[in-house]
Write a structure and sequence with these properties.
Blueprint: E1 6-10, H1 11-31, E2 40-42, E3 50-52, H2 55-60, H3 67-87, H4 91-110, H5 115-136, H6 142-153, H7 156-169, E4 174-179, E5 184-195, E6 212-222, H8 230-242, E7 247-251, H9 256-267, E8 272-276, H10 282-296, E9 316-324, E10 328-333, H11 337-353, H12 357-370, E11 373-380, H13 384-407, E12 409-411, H14 415-419, H15 426-439, H16 445-453, E13 459-460, E14 471-472, H17 473-476, E15 479-481, H18 482-500, E16 504-508
Parallel strand pairs: 4-11, 6-7, 7-8
Antiparallel strand pairs: 1-16, 2-3, 5-10, 5-11, 6-9, 9-10, 12-15, 13-14
Helix pairs in contact: 1-3, 1-4, 3-4, 3-18, 4-15, 4-18, 5-18, 6-7, 6-13, 7-13, 8-9, 11-12
Length: 516
Amino acid sequence: MSKQSRKVVYGDELQNKLVSGVEQLYKVAETAYGPKSGNVAIEMPYGDPTVSHDGVTNVEKVFLKDPVENMAAAIIKQASKKSNKKVGDGTTGVVILSYYLYKEARKLEAGGYNRMEIARKLRETAADAVEQIDKMKKPTDSELLKYVAEISAGDEAIGDMIADVIEEIGVDGGVTIEDFAGVGIYNEIVDGFYFRKGYTNVNLTTDPSNLESRHDNVRIFITEKKLTTTTDIAPILEKIVKAGIKDLVIVGDIAEEALNVLFLNRLKGIITTTVVDAPVFDAMRSLFMEDLAIITDGKVFTPGSNSSDFDVDMLGAAGKVIVNENSTTILDGDGDSDAINSRVSELRDQLSTSESEVTIEALKNRLSRLTGKVAIIRVGGAVESEQAEVKLRVQDAICAVQAAIKDGIVPGGGVTLARIKPLAFQNAFKEPFKVLLANAGHDAPGDVLSEVLRKSEWFGVDLKSDSYEPVDLFKAGVIDPTWVIKEVVQNACSVVAQLITLKASIYHTDRDSKLD
């Protein structure tokens, strides 16, 4: 087997390239940071370019020709990805903060600090900052949720609509975003079964480029038994294919060997399968599977079963199933309404007599899924790039509202970070506020920040107005979800701690530098 040639980079050359990679990623993020910032034009591998104001989209498309510079950017992108996956927002802010934390970390290194000591300081700073953020937060309400959504989406009308939708379906309700052939945006609330668990393998999705699967009139195989080998999955799949089923969603634990069987059948065009794991474990896993079976009129393939015990009649069915990286939505399940209502009544009876907090919470979650409402938000656009950009902003706003409901709100506009008095890296936490003001056209953001910091903690600048005078941000509705800001801090400190400890880099000399 041939071995690829590799090169090692270290010393000043490494440090210079790391700085360059981080700075180039920062420049892309900074361009679209804040309500008065600009957009980023992105060349696509095929078709027309995309114009984007979405942070995670912008930084994800950065692919630098120099391998070491690209690795530096990729390390910072890890923080952006983690924030996006966890809370769906804060993706630009985490890159901005990471950049300035890295600058300060390098200054400490130049001043004689050991790199491992700097990494320790970063971790301690993150923990301390999160405690301070928690002290600033306030609970939210329906009116404040509109402000959260508006700030995230950058559009008042979208903000109002999303806040109303989330209030109606609840924080644990499902939201799916779909295209429609027109201009504008509207929503519809339908009955649905929603849970926070996405696909197991992106290669088995129906649309890997958009990181999702969409199935219409699909059969659903619910298996509590882990399918590990080819022997486990092949006989079951053979019966399903013989029944003429071409589209399948599997909910259950499928090991790599069994997944490979599904993928091979997908490549041959025999059957398209998306695999989703259950969102719970142990005893609650069995109850979740039973609830799903009732919703879809299916039967659970239990741990004691053999592949020969499987029958196609065990499959559930639904009019539509949508699976993305983090969640699954099942609409128009074939379940009998009487059976569903009976299960709901049973759970409500249990809830009324339960005293254990753990049991009560579990029962509430099951009731929420069984009686759930799902919002379908349909987005149109005059051109495809506009439609795609609006969909991304809608998704960000939905995640921001859900995060605000769960963990409250803090002052927005970069003020929360600026007011943190961390154990170290104090200047870095003030920079996002300055970048926001600079993007809004102010030529002395440091002076404004000094004036803001003399006021009480909820005072800052409303960037939607033309004034830079400090105002009460709570009254002005300039707020951020607490959970998002905490994720920004923790993830930025984490990746910079990784980056500052690097003393060497290894890369392939025949690396492909084509546009990803």
